[in-house]
Design a protein that fits this description.
This protein is an alpha/beta fold and about 575 residues long. The chain folds into two domains: about 5-65 and about 85-170, no CATH class; about 220-560, 3-Layer(aba) Sandwich (Rossmann fold). It has 16 helices and 26 strands. Strands 11, 12, 13, 14, 16, 18, 19 and 22 form an eight-stranded mixed beta sheet that branches. Helix 2 packs across helix 12. The termini are far apart. Mean pLDDT is about 90; it is low at about 1-20 and about 190-195. One of its GO terms (cellular component) is extracellular region. It holds the Pfam family Pro-kuma_activ. One of its GO terms (molecular function) is metal ion binding. It comes from Mycena albidolilacea. Secreted tripeptidyl-peptidase which degrades proteins at acidic pHs and is involved in virulence.
Length: about 575
Amino acid sequence: MSVTSLFFASLIAFAAAGPAFQNFVVQDSLSSVPQGFSKVGPAADSTTLNLRIALASSDFAGLEKALYDVSTPSSSNYGNHLSKDEVNAFLAPTADAASAVQAWLDSHGLTATKSSAAGDWLSLSVPVSKANELFNAKYENFEHVASGKTYARTLSYSLPSEVADHVAAVHPASTFNNPTSLKPVLSAPKTSSGISTDATPASCATTITPACLQSLYGIPTTAATESSNSIAVAGFIEQFANSADLKSFLTKFRTDVSSATTFKLQTLDGGSNSQTSSKAGVEANLDIQYTVGVATGVPVFFVSVGEDFEDGDLEGFLDIVNFLSDEDDVPQVMTTSYGENETDMSKALAFKLCEAYAAFGARGTSILFASGDGGVEGGQAQTCTKYQAAFPAGCPYLTAVGSVHGISPEIASTFSSGGFSNYWGVADYQSDAVAAFLKAQGTTTNKGLFNTTGRGYPDVSAQGENVQIVSSGSTGGVDGTSCSSPIFASVISLINDKLIAAGNPPLGFLNPWLYANADALNDVTTGSNPGCGAKGFTARAGWDPVTGLGTPNYPKLLAAAGL
């Protein structure tokens, strides 16, 4: 009998098993209300919670090994990306896990549905009274003070001993997501008459356009040829990509490209893409304009994720990666310009979401995330006494992109989030690079402010200040690593186009290849990312936790790809 059929079978033997599930084991417990939230009272028993239950995968270690095997250039399996069925076999829970969890839910008269193809994520809706019973918890209402939004959460939750080892995480429970997502900020908008469309040193030193990027990074203007190659652009929080703004952007900044060039739309979780000018999203327009406008000729998909889920970032991040990973033909690149602080998500949830990125990468997709805009304060600026990490940037199975500005030389942006994860240890592919940085930094600089054994990020960087976009009909500049991720993603997609045209597989998970070919990037050695009342990290020769390995050099990266 398959795992799936075991999970959804009617297990009559456990129909009256309620009393057997009474020995609870604490899974997570917070000693106080997280910073930025305040308790406002008990959650009503009738309040509906849309639960996600993550089951432990049967062989994630095997998936991780397979991911590195197909992503490491020196491996004989390099480029032999896994099929959907192969990935799901690693992620699926064991038959024993599926049976035990089903019996537990049956004892409460509950039925869950799969929310991932592998069956390692389950969804069900229950009232607060039932959630308190399921998890031996006390759900209360907590207000996020800055936004005024209120969430039902619990400071502690437990699981029966019979299922504790089989359940990796539960949400919503004790994770308090910051509802303020990473977005760029308008930076000194200029009128169209004051913007140069030429890639001259004088203009590109302060104002970034596609022509500047083509000149600076050697990005070709010739159109890609392979229709099977694509970029997925993640869209969240009702940020809509406006077609009229894209047309204006191409008319102004890519006169060599038809202004009718556009993108395709995919939606999930009730997502949409309103074309009302007033609803044009700065973030969405930025991401679309610097993929369509830089990755010339590469098909671009805007994947708009709606909000048909419990408040918080987990479901949006999780649902889009599961949605795309479940496609028969996955996109070769996905870029995401949203994120949060690592502490905003419990370690258990972060680990399980990171597993989904590993699975997606094993399918052959290059996953890029903006590293964040909080410097050493994390994905977003915050009050702190020790350096904070960003998420998902700290996940080792994706490529985190930091920000630089200027052209001669390029300089690290002060807001460019970078540092070391407190959840994941240093990845093997970067161990030498991180060790070299720590040795060069010395033992006294930043002492006691960061995790010296953590996964270092970002991995790479690209221009991220005063990047020109068109939004709601107006042209202006934006700042943020949100600019950097789609720019780097576009470079990778153009290399993939050449690889596919030559009959080769796409690059897939980038990091082992990037760290093995560090000389193919423009090293950035100037600038720092201060925060938490300290100086932060300083850009140095080689990898550093501000600009990573450096910015793209298309001709050198193309050669590193064997072309």
